[in-house]
Design goal:
By secondary structure, the chain is α/β, with parallel strands linked by helices. It has one domain (about 10-300): TIM Barrel, CATH 3.20.20. It has helices spanning about 30-40, 55-65, 90-95, 115-120, 125-130, 145-155, 165-180, 195-200, 240-250, 265-280, 285-300; strands at about 15-20, 45-50, 75, 75-80, 110, 160, 185-190, 205-210, 220-225, 230, 250-255. Helix 3 links the parallel strand 4 (about 75-80) and strand 5 (about 110).
């Protein structure tokens, strides 16, 4: 029998909803077809393809057309960075319809990741750059254009992703999204307080915690939004994550956020992450919920 690394069984039926792959500006460990092939070989159910520069629903549709027989479904969406057209209703509409045939459009519409005030300040960006970034103001009033995008996500039953905003902003966005009938809400809680995570969960949102934040890749400047290379210093450990995972409870999602050339390919990075989480006392059943049940429910994957 072939050798199977420890934790391989945890990948069976799993969904990694945060995978980066080529084509891209940065070096990548896999292209979109390799990402699907490797996930299928590990017995995974699906992967979600994300890109900080463009809508990935077309890549996903193409991968499914070519490799759907392998049994691993790919899905994509748009992160509304300036390079993808910015935070506009037109960008969201185009992404949701982008593909070929029913069900091939975006499964998620995300606010910016590395073009938010929160991230730009952590990256040490200058005042001129900060003025161009997205933020929810201190009064927590969600901008009108975001409200319109939320309405579209509710109407089309796709995920509204809060992007890389602060915990305060994520709570405000989740509150507004729930008011507007959005039933699929994703937040990125790797640096949120447990109180903020609990508030998001109470509003029906899912909280994703990704492997990337725990890795050495955070030590290297990467191209996220322009020619400059910036990094966010990270001292996060799995022990930092454990209370956040517990706070998210039944609404926690684990993802690799891998694909950058400095890390193992996404499938291997995901396996290592799940073993790391398991070492904190989480059971196979809990891991299954965080890697299969919850992402399937969030993204509508059968």
């Amino acid at each position: 029998m072939p050798y199977l690394p420890p934790g391989s069984h945890l990948l069976k039926g799993a969904i990694d909803c945060h995978v980066h792959c080529a084509p891209h500006l940065n070096g990548r460990s896999v292209n979109v077809f390799e990402a699907v092939r490797q996930a299928a070989a590990a017995g995974m159910k699906a992967i979600g393809i994300m890109c900080n520069f463009q809508n990935t629903s077309g890549f996903a549709a193409l991968a499914n057309d070519e490799l759907g027989h392998l049994g691993c479904h790919a899905f994509g969406g748009v992160i509304m960075q300036p390079t993808a057209g910015g935070v506009t209703l037109e960008v969201a509409k185009a992404a949701i319809g982008y593909g070929y045939g029913p069900g091939t459009g975006a499964r998620f519409v995300s606010l910016p990741t590395h073009h938010t005030r929160y991230i730009a300040e952590r990256e040490g960006r200058g005042p001129a750059f900060l003025e161009t970034t997205f933020q929810v103001p201190e009064n927590n009033v969600v901008p009108d254009v975001v409200c319109a995008i939320m309405d579209l996500c509710a109407e089309r039953d796709v995920v509204f992703d809060c992007g890389h905003v602060s915990g305060r902003e994520a709570v405000a966005l989740a509150e507004e999204a729930k008011k507007r009938g959005v039933t699929r809400i994703r937040t990125h809680g790797s640096r949120y307080s447990t109180d903020q995570i609990a508030a998001i969960v109470a509003l029906g949102g899912y909280v994703e915690l990704s492997f990337f934040i725990l890795t050495h890749a955070t030590q290297v400047g990467l191209t996220h939004v322009d020619e400059e290379k910036h990094k966010i210093s990270s001292a996060s450990t799995i022990q930092d994550f454990t209370p956040r995972i517990r706070a998210a409870g039944d609404r926690c999602i684990l993802s690799s956020d891998a694909g950058v050339f400095l890390l193992p390919p996404p499938v291997e990075a995901f396996r290592e992450y799940l073993l790391l989480v398991q070492s904190e006392g989480f059971s196979d059943a809990e891991l299954r919920r965080m890697t299969s049940t919850n992402p399937a429910a969030l993204f509508g994957i059968d």
